[in-house]
Amino acid sequence: MHGSNHVSLERVHEIGLAFNRHDIDFIVDSFAEDGVFRNAMGSDGAGNTYRGRKEIRAFFEKLFASSPDIEWRASAEYVSGNHGVAEWHRTATTASGEKQDWLGCDLFTFRDNMIVLKDTYFKIIER
Q1: Domain segments of the chain: what residues?
Q2: Strands 49-51 and 31-38, how do they pair?
């Protein structure tokens, strides 16, 4: 295994699989205690920011509850040093019946194989 300054492609892939399983515990446990998730949307220019496992868990619990069919299909994954990138096509149906179809990516920074930053970006496909 690489030192604390490297992350494996397998680690990025297993995190993506956990999102598709809606495995909240695995997702949250993949973040460092001081981990940060920056959502693509929000009133702040960087998107809404969730700090620490408690805030991150609350966000994803709400997301999975409000869009039970949410799915991310990975199109590419990359790693370089302690950084990882996951490109994906996300589909979901909200509780109100809205169909969502997004192309996006997550930019990860890892420390000791744990996520310290997950920064999400996406494009919305209008049909």
Answers
A1: 9-124
A2: antiparallel
Tell me the one-letter amino acid at 102: W
DSSP letter (8 states) at residue 29:
H
Instruction: Give 59-71 pLDDT, tens digit per residue.
Output: 999 999 999 999 9
Q: For residues 83 and 70, what is the distance between their CA atoms, to the nearest angstrom?
A: 25
- Residue 29, pLDDT above cutoff 80: yes
Query: What's the confidence (pLDDT) of residue 99?
Result: 95
Fold of 9-124: Nuclear Transport Factor 2; Chain: A, (3.10.450)
């598709």: which residue's tokens? 20
Quick one: tokens of 106? Answer: 């997550």
65: Cα separation from own chain's centroid: 16
pLDDT tens-digit readout, 30-43: 999 999 999 998 88
Q: What distances in angstroms separate CA 127 from CA 66, 74, 89, 98, one per listed residue?
A: 21, 21, 15, 12
Q: Which residues pair with 71 in a beta bridge?
A: 91
Which amino acid appears at position 90 of this protein? R
